[in-house]
UniProtKB/TrEMBL annotation:
Species annotation: Drosophila ananassae
Molecular function (Gene Ontology), one example: ATP binding
GO annotation, cellular component aspect: cytoplasm; NAE1-UBA3 complex; nucleus
Keyword set, alphabetical order: ATP-binding, Ligase, Nucleotide-binding, Ubl conjugation pathway
Pathway info: Protein modification; protein neddylation
PANTHER family per UniProt: NEDD8-ACTIVATING ENZYME E1 CATALYTIC SUBUNIT, UBIQUITIN-ACTIVATING ENZYME E1
Catalytic activity: ATP + [NEDD8 protein] + [E1 NEDD8-activating enzyme]-L-cysteine = AMP + diphosphate + [E1 NEDD8-activating enzyme]-S-[NEDD8 protein]-yl-L-cysteine
UniProt-annotated catalytic positions: C217 (glycyl thioester intermediate)
GO BP, sorted A to Z: negative regulation of smoothened signaling pathway; positive regulation of peptidoglycan recognition protein signaling pathway; protein neddylation
Family per record: Belongs to the ubiquitin-activating E1 family. UBA3 subfamily.
Entry protein name: NEDD8-activating enzyme E1 catalytic subunit
Keyword hit for Ligase: yes
InterPro entries, alphabetized: E2-binding, ThiF/MoeB/HesA, ThiF_NAD_FAD-bd, Ub_act_enz_dom_a_sf, Uba3_N, Ubiquitin-activating_enz, UBQ-activ_enz_E1_Cys_AS
């Protein structure tokens, strides 16, 4: 072998990416304006382009595999969960010996060992553990989440990171595109969100299936559904009474039996019917079917959008793909529109309309914030500035001592609390990293003015 022979490993390495080179090193009629065919494109994917994958579960495993094999060389992954036996049928980066270990760490180790051109950095944490400076380092963010709250939170984070020019237009360098995948059983969707430009998560909040998590205030104070009674026993009563001295196990018939009896008692107390043993099982175990093939299709659609956005080699999807493989395969893509009054991306002040401030209690307002399709808050805390300029905490459930101190406000009317028409409330909730201003609008006053 002469010294001038190319290194066999290098030849193999070059062949490995032939498919990508065909796309990235040749011009085509569908390339975006800022695309220039060159070997730099592949190099960018492998060295400079930095992606964040949120979630290392069913979708996350597929996403990491797809992106690593598509030439991306610098991935980060966040997941707060550990591996369970029931994950192994579809979360293929994990093995039996990984049970109990961090999903993010095991997934990263597997990809790093298998795809030498890719380096995955794991974060065994919650997304809420990171701030703006962390998220800023990424070119793109891909979500494979099963939680709407987490999606709303990261959506809020990316919107809060937007910077504006003097004329009010968005500084385009501050936009981090978010590609969001979601699956439930045989249904799935993939979407491209350019924060500030295209419909965000909150713009289309009404598209999400009915919430499985009920607002804590409803569960604790005003249950209406059998599910509320079951959730109450599961979330509050179990920990308080600790009947078996261990955490609730959805597979233990004794545990389910106990929850069933207590939920039935609570349902009777509030004249609610429909608590059955079967329903208790469903609510306690959060049974959401997971179908591996749906995950694979949705993750592939997301990875393709990441590739197009990162390289400009083709126009990205605009902007919402629906997929269903329950009976054959059905799919369509449409352009979800920005909502003019969007909670997160519109800058339009949000109002809560109150019929009569003398009969409407603070709890009624909180209920509206939880139940209305526009807000869908989970566990809001409310503060305001009173007429005398003093800051007042109206209700806060996240800090035990403050909850106790402010609980009495719940049953007081807005009039009794000294709140005025047009009063601004500062509302914080787990669904967003930043506080939201909500203005009270008293219907009675408006009619008088007319
Ligand atoms: Zn929006």
């Amino acid at each position: 072998m002469s010294v001038h022979s190319p290194n066999p490993a290098l030849i193999l390495q070059n062949k490995r990416w032939n498919g990508l080179r065909n796309v990235l090193e040749r011009e085509g009629p569908f390339c975006k304006d800022d695309f220039s065919a060159s070997s730099d494109n592949l190099e960018f994917l492998q060295t400079n382009c930095k992606l964040l994958v949120i979630g290392a579960g069913g979708l996350g495993c597929e996403l990491l595999k797809d992106l690593a094999l598509m030439g991306f060389g610098n991935l980060h992954v966040i997941d707060m969960d550990t591996i369970e036996l029931s994950n192994l049928n579809r979360q293929f980066l994990f093995r039996r010996t990984d049970i109990g270990s961090s999903k993010a760490e095991c997934a990263a180790r597997f990809i790093n060992g298998r795809v030498p051109t890719c380096r995955v950095t794991p974060h065994f944490k919650k997304i809420q553990d990171f701030d703006e400076t962390f998220y800023q380092q990424f070119n793109l963010i891909v979500c494979g989440l099963d939680s709407i709250v987490a999606r709303r939170w990261i959506n809020g984070m990316l919107l809060s990171m937007l910077r504006y020019e003097d004329d009010g237009s968005i500084d385009t360098t501050s936009i981090i595109p978010m590609i969001d995948g979601g699956t439930e059983g045989f249904k799935g969707n993939a979407r491209v969100i350019l924060p500030g430009y295209t419909a965000c998560i909150e713009c289309t909040l009404d598209l999400f299936p009915p919430q499985v998590n009920y607002p804590l205030c409803t569960i604790a104070n005003t249950p209406r559904l059998p599910e509320h009674c079951i959730e109450y026993v599961k979330i509050i009563q179990w920990d308080k009474e600790s009947p078996f001295g261990v955490p609730l196990d959805g597979d233990d018939p004794q545990h389910i039996g106990w929850v069933y009896e207590r939920a039935l008692e609570r349902a009777n107390e509030f004249n609610i019917t429909g608590v059955t043993y079967r329903l208790v099982q469903g609510v306690v175990k959060h049974i959401i079917p997971a179908v591996a093939s749906t995950n694979a299709v949705i993750a592939a659609a997301c990875a393709l959008e990441v590739f197009k956005l990162a390289t400009s080699c083709y126009d990205y999807m605009s902007n919402y793909l629906n997929f269903n493989d329950l009976d054959g395969i059905y799919t369509y893509t449409y352009e979800a529109e920005k909502s003019e009054g969007c909670l997160a991306c519109s800058n339009v002040p949000q109002t809560v309309t109150v019929d009569d401030p003398n009969t409407t209690t603070l709890e009624d307002v909180i209920k509206q914030l939880c139940d209305s399709p526009r807000f869908q808050l989970k566990n809001p805390s409310l503060t305001t500035v009173m007429k005398d300029g003093k800051q007042k905490t109206l209700y806060m459930s996240t800090v035990k001592s403050i909850e106790v101190a402010t609980r009495k406000n719940l049953t007081q009317s807005l009039g009794e609390l000294g709140l005025q028409d047009g009063q601004q409330l500062t509302v914080t909730d787990v669904t967003s990293p930043s506080a939201m201003i909500v203005q009270l609008k008293f219907q009675g006053n408006e009619i008088e003015m007319v």
